[in-house]
Amino acid sequence: MALAASALTPLNRISNANRWSQVSSRASHSFNVSLLFEKRGIGFRNGIAAAAAASSPSPVIEDISQKEIPQRIYTWPDNKKPRVCILGGGFGGLYTALRLESLIWADDKKPQVLLVDQSERFVFKPMLYELLSGEVDAWEIAPRFSELLANTGIQFFQDRVKMLHPADHLGMNGSTGSCSGGTVVLESGLLIEYDWLVLALGSEAKLDTAPGAAEFAFPFSTLEDACKVDNKLKELERRKFGKDTLIRVAVVGCGYSGVELAATVSERLQDRGLVQAINVNTIILPAAPPGNRETALKVLSSRKVQLLLGYLRQILEADLVLWTVGSKPPLPQLEPCDRPHELPLNGRGQAETDETLRVKGHPRIFALGDSSALRDMNGRILPATAQVAFQQADFTGWNLWAAINDRPLLPFRFQNLGEMMTLGRNDAALSPSFIEGLTLEGPVGHAARKIAYLLRLPTDEHRLKVGISWLTKSAVDSVASLQSTLSKVLSGS
Ligand SMILES: Cc1cc2nc3c(=O)[nH]c(=O)nc-3n(C[C@H](O)[C@H](O)[C@H](O)COP(=O)(O)OP(=O)(O)OC[C@H]3O[C@@H](n4cnc5c(N)ncnc54)[C@H](O)[C@@H]3O)c2cc1C
């Protein structure tokens, strides 16, 4: 039987209605919240995600006609060369741009590449937890696009994508004809005409699935989210310093994100905190390899994390609620006149692609990563992971080359290399897919995961800078621990 976190309510609203108005903002006030669990029907696919499915998601991007922003047209440096516009500079978009840069082109075919992202930084999301544990600095896992792209021909524009106007359904095929593939409108009013478009806008936290979640829970999906959670923890640590009361943290969801957060936060708070992890499912990490699940259970139990699985009607009190369930792709609107040619979206709002990663019915639009949907050989939608987006970026770059050069496009095949998770400053679980039954854990798993991610960071220059920084930090840590061991030995304790 599936159960769901059904509401988040400030505690002072329950106990004292008059104080409700004081609790107005998640960022500026500290408050207690209660979690109310309710029994749901049997066969609920994802209780938490579907708990408030009736409430319609608020539009991410508003209609341009409602605001009077003067439109400007982006001028490409060369009006003869193909124009590739990439929307979203994450694992899908940035790595596609870098792949295009690394390919060999005939002079007249080398495309001009424009990368658009709302943020000034690329974010290596799998290492956001390390910001909470203090293991990494923000520049290491969130370098600026301007630095990453400094030695390339890729143009970067920081802006939010507002609207798409594809023209490739108007009888054009995918070849390099001179007609434009369509236009994109950004929030600043800039209009970009493209020949080829790459949609890689990722996904964002979905907080409209339970009443109160949007107002009172903290998502953990972006660099800003991680910084807010870190600040909130610092504030709670300060507030409760020297007091008997525990810092109570509730983590909603026990997929990878929830378990990694629970492990990291419980290690940070140690005996000053109580971490409770809640899941509608009766097991944690239902889709993970058994080795990863067992290692995670061991670590969570050693840190006294309370697991509330498939729980029945209960109110929890917490100082901080971390929300890790549900996500939605922030795909832009199409212009009203394009409605009949809307991008084909699945039930989760992801753009459906064929196996060459082109959006169905749109030969000039490639889509990859979390905001796209492609089925594997067994008919299952590929997971929304960095591993998938990273591999798709390689194919998108190659297929753009093939399309521009009138060569056949390659079908994408996902190669599952295994799964990794952090469980704190010196703990991890790593199950490579090529050695069945093997799980690396503890410091060995932690080091292996860090090396694997170092190799995945974008650009040689950035990898080198981060590699030196991590080596220096680990040398400093080793000296510090040697000093503390020596001083203990010398003092006879
Ligand atoms: C905390 C966390 C931990 C994770 N850990 C792992 C892991 O261990 N292993 C793994 O494989 N995967 C992991 N993932 C998932 C992985 O990060 C994503 O699957 C991956 O980032 C998807 O790549 P993407 O390019 O589709 O999206 P993203 O990397 O999210 O990039 C999307 C980009 O689009 C930009 N954008 C969005 N909307 C707009 C707009 N309207 N206008 C302009 N720009 C916009 C964003 O700023 C962002 O830069 C984790 C995710 C999170 C949140």
Q: Describe it for me?
A:
The protein contains 13 helices and 25 strands. It has four domains: 3-44 and 217-325, 3-Layer(bba) Sandwich (FAD/NAD(P)-binding domain), CATH 3.50.50; 67-204 and 328-404, FAD/NAD(P)-binding domain (3-Layer(bba) Sandwich), CATH 3.50.50; 418-456, no CATH class; 468-493. The radius of gyration is 24 Å and the shape is globular. Residues 14-31, 37-65 and 172-176 have low confidence and may be disordered. It has 493 residues and is an alpha/beta fold. Bound molecules: flavin-adenine dinucleotide. The site of flavin-adenine dinucleotide has 31 residues, from helix 3, strand 5 and helix 11.
Short descriptors:
FAD/NAD(P)-binding domain; 4 domains; binds flavin-adenine dinucleotide; alpha/beta; globular; five-stranded mixed sheet; 493 residues; 30% helix
